[in-house]
Amino acid sequence: MPERTVFPRVKSARFQSGTLLGTQGFALEGALFEHLDPSCVRGLLLDDLGIPVTMRTEHMPLEHYRLSISPKGAVVATADERGALQALRTLAHLASQGPLPIGEIDDGPDLAIRACHLDLKDQHPGRDYIFDFIDRIASMKYNALVVEYEDKFPFSDEVRPRAKDCWTPEHVVKFVEFCRVRGIEVIPLIQTLGHLEFLTPFHPEISETPAMLCPSNPSSAELVNLMVDDILALHPASRFLHLGADETWDLGTCHTCRDTADHEGKGVLYGRHMDRIISHVLEKQVRPMIWADMVLSHPEAFDFIDHATVMVDWDYWPYGERVDKVNIWGLGQHPNEAWEDVPEEQREVFGEYTEIESGDCWAEAFPFTEMLREKGYDVITASAVRSHGDPYTHPDWSYHLPNVWAAARTAVEDGSLGSLVTSWAIRRTLPELTMMGIAAGAECMWQAHIADARWLVDFPARFGEVFIGDRAAGMAEYGLSVRGLGYDETLTQKREDRGGGWAMVPRFDRIKRRLPKYPELDHGALSARVAVLDRSASALLLVKPKDSARKHVELYHLAADEALLKAWIFRVLARLESVPADKTVLKMAKHLHAQLREIKERAARMWKEYLTPTALTSELSFRFDEEDQSLRKALGRK
Ligand SMILES: [Zn+2]
Predict the structure, then answer these.
(1) pLDDT at 222
(2) How many CA atoms lie less than 13 Å away from 22 in the CB half-sphere?
(3) Mean of pLDDT values over 63-89
(4) Max alpha carbon distance in the chain (Å)?
(5) Which helix or strand (DSSP H or E) is residue 175 part of?
(6) Do 565 and 447 lie in a common domain?
């Protein structure tokens, strides 16, 4: 039996000895092909000299297929076009590894919606990269993409905000069609209450805080409904619209809102506003989605949220199967020993979904998915591959991989509609570096039961084998080195409330605060970090990528080098603060300053393929200006 890898793993494969020659191309027959364009399947070569592939319809669940490969050619049985596409993707993957094996594959996904997230805020990816990204997630058998447009969407004049590099209506239409032919459903996302920093400056009369509209003012929902109309006009086939509405912690700020919050509860404020928008969306025959954190924080809001709404249960922290710090929305994370501090009222609401064992409180990952299901909502669980807590150079895989796994597994166990792998651009890692987590999501959403604890440990090596290396031994090095980069306090972003306004805290200031005794730094945390990063950067040098993965690995090299250089810079700056005239350290600072310029140039060269020119400029400034200025100051330069 020939060795073959199919990604994501198929449900069942029975191969016999022998292979089928002539896999340089495929010829396609069957009615199903009249409605789809097989040339959109990445890696599928259409050529009259190739093997014939016959497609026939058969009753089976959506996206399922049976692929039979015999010496005469391949036959695909499926019920729908997406099933046909998935079968062709399996064929393409098999053919990329040599002659096709003789045998039969029965396959289909465990979840109906398997979604990725494209976030256009803060770090706007270039158009070519977006199309390439879609092609790649389609080849991993994702079938939905949640697109957070923010001000990149061409809103009408009444709504107003439009970024300098905003999309044109034609671009949106082309993008949606590009996704459609690949079997990817676009789910547009617009914020409708909080996280509206891009909108409020244009509408101060209805804004309650810089990030939030006033939910008591009916004009707020009227404006949002204009945005809904704008979005739906360019997504006429969308079945879903994601209305965001997470983290509206400012509820109850204005006089009117405070009054309602005091007498009826914040959930009533939230619920009434969301109901005005949800009803509007339902009238358009589209199903709304919302992030579930606010209704879970203020359960009185449930009474206002129509049951056709899909609850997106996001939780980016659960490690593995058991959670010892249960996140009670609105109250924060409760380690098991502090469960007694949770007010009785919340204990009654949430207690049923947690376990108390000899005084300890713990829960399974995503404990409240079951609660949302029991309240009668369809649920999508949401994990993250870029989120709060990540360094801005690279994702921290030690918690993203178990998180993606837990979200997919819970979704299957609790009969959810699907799962979504989010990726928050504000965390700044280039989307390309999140591909390992996206691939992990694809595999465990397709087949939750194979994704066990062993699979989780082995996944980086599997990703290395399938996507990075040419099946060469030693690809585990890729996984080990990128995991070794890990969490980095010095490279996370922190905002602080500084006298009524939120501001970024300079990175070096934060390090000083955490490590106040400068003379000890050389033997402290920073030098340990330097050593760890050095090991990871060196291990990456051993990875020998195949041509198609060369750029991906080079980007990882850059991330490791950047993290390492920053660690050195912080270490030297800290040293200079304690001994300003130390000549050896000054020489070192000069050397690091030159390296900083070099790495900035390298980044500018490499990232221009991934970001729009506007996004590239702000990215370079965010990453390098602060250290550049600090080093100049330390060296007595202007
Ligand atoms: Zn208000």
Answers:
(1) 98
(2) 16
(3) 93
(4) 80
(5) helix 169-181
(6) no
Burial of 170 (0-12, 13-18, 19+ CB in 10 A): exposed
d(CA 593, ligand 1 centre) in Å: 49
Range of the domain at 24: 12-107
Compute, in angstroms, the gap from residue 225 CA to the centroid of ligand 1.
18
> Residue 492 burial (CB < 10 Å; 0-12/13-18/19+)?
middle
Query: What backbone torsions phi and psi does residue 298 show, to the nearest 5 degrees?
Result: -130, 80
**What's the gap in Å between 214 CA and the centre of ligand 1?**
4
User: Total domain count for the chain?
Assistant: 4
What is the whole-number distance in angstroms between the Cα of residue 207 and the centre of ligand 1?
Answer: 8
**Tokens representing 386?**
């870029």
Q: What is the CA radius of gyration of the chain?
A: 26
Residue 258 alpha carbon to ligand 1 centre in Å: 7
* CA 212 to ligand 1 center in whole angstroms: 9
Same domain, 213 and 228: yes
Query: Are the C-beta atoms of residues 568 and 530 closer than 8 Å to each other?
Result: yes
Indicate the residue among 342, 364, 386 that finishes a domain.
364
What contacts 24+ positions apart, CB below 8 Å, involve 447-450?
447/8, 447/9, 447/11, 447/109, 447/110, 448/110, 448/111, 448/408, 448/409, 448/411, 448/412, 448/413, 449/110, 449/412, 450/9
Phi, psi of 280 (to 5 degrees): -65, -45
The answer to whether position 1 is within a domain reads no
Kindly state the tokens that stand for 507. 């990175």
Question: 301, 271 in Cβ contact below 8 A?
Answer: yes
pLDDT above 80: residue 357? no
Give 241's strand partners: 288
Distance 4 CA to ligand 1 centre (A): 60
Q: Do residues 350 and 380 both lie within one domain?
A: no
- H or E segment at 419? strand 418-423
Q: Look over the chain and give the mean of its residue pLDDT values, rounded to a whole number.
A: 88
HSE-CB at 134 with a 13 A cutoff on CA atoms is 25
- pLDDT tens for 95-125 read 888 888 899 999 999 999 999 999 999 899 9
Q: Is residue 72 part of a domain?
A: yes
Q: Name the CA dihedral angle for 426, 427, 431, 436, rounded to a multiple of 10 degrees.
A: -150
Q: How far is the CA of 301 from the centre of ligand 1 (A)?
A: 16
Compute CA 351 distance to the chain's CA centroid, rounded to the nearest angstrom.
30
Q: Which residues contact 166 (CB under 8 A, 6 or more apart)?
A: 151, 152, 153, 154
Query: Do residues 453 and 490 share a domain?
Result: no
Residues 591-604 have pLDDT tens digits of 999 999 999 999 99
Q: State the DSSP code for 48.
A: T
Q: What are phi and psi of 67, to 5 degrees?
A: -115, 115
Distance in Å, CA 203 to ligand 1 centroid: 14
The DSSP H or E segment spanning 131 is helix 127-139
Question: What's CA 551's distance to the chain center, in Å?
Answer: 20
pLDDT digits (tens, 9 = 90+) for 241-283: 999 999 999 999 999 999 999 999 999 999 999 999 999 999 9
**Is pTM, for the whole model, over 0.85?**
yes
What b/e sequence results for 276-299 when a residue is b if at least 16 CB atoms lie within 10 Å of its CB, and e otherwise? bbbebbeeeebbbbbbbbbbbbbb
Report the separation in Å between the CA atom of 294 and the middle of ligand 1, taken as the mean of its atom positions. 17
How far away, in angstroms, is 253 Cα from ligand 1 center? Answer: 6
Whether residues 101 and 155 fall in one domain = no
